[in-house]
Amino acid sequence: MITMEEQQSLFIAVGRRLSRRVTAYAVGGTAMMFHGFKDATLDIDLVFESAVDQEVFKRALIALGWESMDARIVYGGKRNRPSMFQLGDARFDLFVVNVVNFTFSEGMKNRSVQTRQYGDNLFLRVADPHDIILMKCATDRAKDKEDVKKILERSTISWSVLVEESKQQALLGDELAVLELGCFLEKLDNEMNVPVPQEVLNELFKMVEFQVKKRITRGKK
Description:
Number of helices: 10
Strand content: 15-25%
């Protein structure tokens, strides 16, 4: 596990090695640590806006002794796998724009208002709690449900932001985003006693119905 103190030290070391300014978005457990939702994470997840920025960051990691590893070990055959680097028990997962099924959209970027600077060249923008929830619902692991439960208990969430961003993700190519969010929230409500407004679930599943009907209509043409 990587503690907040260890994570800070890693970012400082990388920031000193960067050849130019790089901005990245902290997501997953990394973002949760910055928001104070958890004390440690298994890996450091970052999203870059370009492959060029990712490459500059990778070169800094390699200079510090980090070694590349096969992302298929963790992500299997999933699309949009990250570049992964490991040193001891610590790991970086470096994505470019797409995080497996999710696109780090303009809305997500705009909501990432918390910024951390390390040295002159490394700027980290921290994903908003709404967007941490959305990306975790795509993986739907037991620990992700626990993480989202913590977020919902410790922060004020606008359900409409979750619904609208799931619609946006569907428009950007992740057609299952609305269904994944609806099923994930329903499980939180039923299995973990996390209250989710019924009208939110109704809206999500109505959208899923509409998507299915639209696909059937297209198939008949």
